[in-house]
Amino acid sequence: MPTIYEVAAAAGVSPATVSRVFNGANVSPEKAEAVRKAAKALAFTPSRTARTLRLQSSEVIALVIPDIENPFFTALARGVEDVAHAAGYSVVLCNTDEDHEKELRYLDIALSATMAGVIIAAAGGDSDLSGLLARRCPVVAVDRSPHGVDVDAVTVDNRAGGRAATQTLVEQGFQRIACITGPSDVETATQRADGWRDAVTGGRPAEADDHYLRFADFRGDGGAAAMSELLALPEPPDAVFVANSLMSAGALRVLSEQGRLPPATGVAVFGDLPFLPLAPIPITVVHMPARHLGITAAKLLLERIGGDDQPARTIVLRNQLTRVG
Amino acid sequence: MPTIYEVAAAAGVSPATVSRVFNGANVSPEKAEAVRKAAKALAFTPSRTARTLRLQSSEVIALVIPDIENPFFTALARGVEDVAHAAGYSVVLCNTDEDHEKELRYLDIALSATMAGVIIAAAGGDSDLSGLLARRCPVVAVDRSPHGVDVDAVTVDNRAGGRAATQTLVEQGFQRIACITGPSDVETATQRADGWRDAVTGGRPAEADDHYLRFADFRGDGGAAAMSELLALPEPPDAVFVANSLMSAGALRVLSEQGRLPPATGVAVFGDLPFLPLAPIPITVVHMPARHLGITAAKLLLERIGGDDQPARTIVLRNQLTRVG
DNA sequence: ACCCTGGCAGAAATCGATTTCACCGTCAAG
DNA sequence: CTTGACGGTGAAATCGATTTCTGCCAGGGT
Question: From residues 43-102 of B, which are strand C contacts by CB within 7 A?
Fold first, then answer.
């Protein structure tokens, strides 16, 4: 790990000159050449740590997501990465596992490592962004917007999507439409359930009956468990709206095991099924613009990093309904 | 962003004492209390950057993977994270997108940010780990082991797995067994194809006929394209061994579209199908211990970080054959 | 002949935390 | 009563790159 001083000594110049060579300041051609030669000979790599300490900022942005095994978040990550890389930033992914403790730890790291900015899909409802905001660290919320904090956010219209998906089941004539959604403290989960409720009650929430509503964990096994539970009811549902793709895989597995796959049971899913579409079964899918969420969030963040100081914005992307199978 | 100096001033002590309080050295109870109070009042967070610069090491390990959208790598990541977190380390994920340029960039960052260590699933065959090794930065290769460098590695027996999977197709009486594998410059891809060749030629490689062999990209669309190509042959295959799960999703989609799903066509897959198992179709699956690969790699890395200096080891995990559907 | 401008380069300060070194008391042993 | 040991503490050096600040020198204008 050679330092700038050793390079300077080898090239017969001062450290300042070496620094200038690497940062494109005015240096005479001969010295620049000498420095470059010395640097190459020593395999010199400037210390990012020292640079970051001095400059009080780095070219790394943190992307904090709750579940790295969820294809939605990985697609989102790809979007973020593409934009960030094009702008010369590196992205580090932090997986919180829906755990507030881990989330806090990563946010703390982002702060104390003076990262350029943070894009966060919050675990649960109320993440503590106060530390970041107090230090004026640029933050963009994506998919889920934390309560009570005023930051840029990029989301989709979960309620409308849930409503539209469920509506297709209503129109197909199903009578007992269940809903499997995510944790009750996650905004996107409750909003999608609200959309389901809108559709099954025909817009008369007074008639809401949450008999068929299950809060699971947005994971495959959780979806399977909830589906089993629903099917074990005295009067099992004849259709189900599942609020994300991982849970739908679990739910479909259970339906498959019990021989009740569509079209016997109506199924509508919020989120893409990247691996599923092989089976020729009729399903309604609410397409999530995951990658675009990431792209948009990254662009917003870069604007903030660039010094944009306008009031916080919320961007709501559309999702699209398709039927497969 | 208050510094240790401000805390020291507020508490009426020297910066050294503040540091000692946070690092558990001997400090009188009164001063310790005063420091803690001042730190809380100022919302002081020690700068990781400064700390890292001074200590020449951090508690972050980098996990470099080629495709974050591949469930295999995300499961692996979970394994790494679990072990690392338990040991007090944070994990940052770096997605190289099978791109040597990006990979190099991340390795460079890991080095110049003096991270504690690196776990890498190399993009392509010959990643340049020389920089890391020259600086004695602990490195563990996982899934794929780079050529010509002597580092700890954790892999599975790809050839045996490919052979066993293909063998089940042979035993089912299929005559024309194709193979869809990954890029030809990726070790795991060629090894799995070797296993396929072993099985179809009955161990007489002289009779190898790569007519039915396709190199794709380990992604869904690539698998679909390869499958279409194979089916368009004058004499299409009656079975296929697919070398990873993402490609198998694409391949199955094509088979589904053409009404040739199993059991009409024989299918064997290397890698788990986390989302697929809903459909009651008979498939052979080579189970990959993805999470355990991660766990094992992380443990090895932690040993190295702890100063273990023994010669490099290679650990080969078993994979398990199952039939679903 | 003198001054000014501008390009180039080095000395030294700086970023914030850690740690060595030195120093001061205090208390126990000789 | 002296000496040694030891806990507590601060001053200052250190990690490595960046950046002012300053000075040197050459060339052009008056």
Answer: 44-47, 49-51, 53-55
